[in-house]
Amino acid sequence: MDGFCEQVVKVKRKPKDNVLAVIYVLLSLGLPALCIALAYVIVPYFIYIGLFVLIGGVPLAILLIKNQKIEFEYQVVDNFLLVDKIIAKRKRKKILRVKIDEFKSIDKFNDSNYSGRKINKFFISVNDVEEQGVYAFSFYNEARGNCAVVMKPDKNILEGMRPKLMPELQLKVVKMLRGEEI
Question: Which of the residues 28, 48, 159, 162 has the least number of beta carbons within 10 Å of its own beta carbon?
């Protein structure tokens, strides 16, 4: 093994996530209350239905709220860039495995850089694509054609990738490490 670098990027909670969490809690507590209220009007067996909905609904709400915690992990292992999505620190989903020497270009990710290019698939692994320091690494894949991984690498990841890149891309990475515009 030549080298190993790793970076974890946490996705920040959005207001939509907070609203969904409140909805989950309200549904898990509101449906059993509705069943208990209906038990007095319709049939007393609705109390049992409400109890079972409560027993199943509260853990389900907790699970759904925990699943909103998402992280992206970038790894440079030898000549490979590995990007994984970690959900609730329990599940790991492989997003991308690509050889570093297959990268064609490195650009800041915004509309002006990618307006004329044809990219078939974007692998977005950042919280916000409008943030400072978000770059797109484009490459060619046999199955999907032109692809790009959008990520926010730190200095360790860039230094781990630099020796395996083409010479013109190595210059861009050196400029990125110095803090210059590419």
Answer: 48
Q: What is the pLDDT of residues 3-47, one digit of tens each?
A: 788 989 898 888 999 999 999 999 999 999 999 999 888 888 889
- Report how far apart the first and last C-alpha atoms of the chain are (Å, whole number): 30
User: How much is the pTM?
Assistant: 0.80
Q: pLDDT for 92-142, tens place per residue? A: 999 999 999 999 988 888 766 666 678 888 888 888 888 888 888 999 988
- At position 118, the amino acid (one-letter code) is K
- CA 89 – CA 173 distance, rounded (Å): 31
Tell me how far the alpha carbon of residue 82 is from its chain's centroid. Answer: 13
